[in-house]
Amino acid sequence: MSALRNQDGVVLLLVLVIVALLSALLTEFSFSTLVDLRATETFRDRARSFYLARGGIEAARLILQEDQNEFDHPSEFWGDPMDTIPVGDGDVSLTITDLSGRFNLNGVADTRGNPLPGYHRFIALCREVLQVDQEQARQLADALRYWFDADRSKVTPDDSYYSELQPTYPRKGAKLDTLDELYLIRGFTADIVQRLRPYLRVNGDLQINVNTASAAVLYAWQFSAAEGNVEIIFNRQDIAALLDYRRQSAFKQLSDLALVEGIGERWSAAWLQGSVGVKGHIFQLVSRGRVNQGARSATAIVQKQGNRLLSLRVE
């Protein structure tokens, strides 16, 4: 009898072990299934968010095309960020920014390395934004000038710097396609690029929109191509007055600049003819689509005239 009871105890112990193992396996299986389900749901939601973000870009392009007046100012419909617009099971957020008020870096020099009007303007902008001296600002402008030089038979002062890097690379010999290229150019540290980025662009023509340009860009834009001929028409107080007026009312035509107290007709002498306007030409569109926990964002650069898509990045 004692032997039978011992066998019963062993059997019971084995049953308990087997039940425990099965419970563990079932728990692991349930957990794995739940993880796979969540991953599938997240993938599904991110896929749906992608299409929402992409659709948001197209909606923003339509908004710009509907804007048919002769000026572009942030007080218009496109200038208000559109947050969490319900779409189906998710939502879309849109932001439209006029980049025409920013400095086009490709206007610093031509592809032979010769300075353009933007050369001295860029030096002035660096001094304003980075708070560096004339020589430091000039070095940055020269680095861009050498980077643009397409003549491979010419040796620029920066070529030896690029040849000593690990890994080495040559100067581009062409204009910039993206602002991220600045990280490759001599002197443009991460800190400098980040501080300058809000004031810069590389797309479109060189004209700036006085309705959206920052104080630093408006001030720097007075510097002409010939350093010896630089004449500062507007001081910083004049620029501040322009911005104060602009906050209350858009400049619908360039002659409206004369309405600013203390400015008068001086505006026509401050900037080179044709270098400023009141319309935006290049816009940045940012769209964020979200469905449950899945989210995707899309960023596009478009040329307003002709609704031309210049670049698109989806993250």
Write down the secondary-structure element order. Answer: HEEEHHHHEEHHHEEEE
Low-pLDDT residue spans: none
* Oligomeric state of the chains present here: single chain
Name the helicity range. Answer: 40-55%
Briefly note the structural class of the backbone: alpha/beta
N→C terminal distance: 74 Å
Shape: extended
CATH topology of the domain at 2-100 and 282-314: Pantoate--beta-alanine Ligase, Chain: A,domain 2
Strand content: 15-25%
How many beta strands in the DSSP annotation? 9
CATH homologous superfamily annotation of the domain at 2-100 and 282-314: GSPII I/J protein-like
How many DSSP helices? 8
Can you tell me the CATH class of the domain at 2-100 and 282-314?
Alpha Beta
- Please give the radius of gyration in angstroms: 30 Å
Q: What is the typical, i.e. mean, pLDDT?
A: 88
- Strands across the major sheet, in which order? 1-2-7-8-9
Examine the secondary-structure arrangement and name the CATH architecture of the domain at 2-100 and 282-314.
2-Layer Sandwich
> Main β-sheet, in a few words?
5 strands, antiparallel
Q: How is this structure best summarized?
A:
The chain is α/β, with parallel strands linked by helices. The protein is built from eight helices and nine strands.
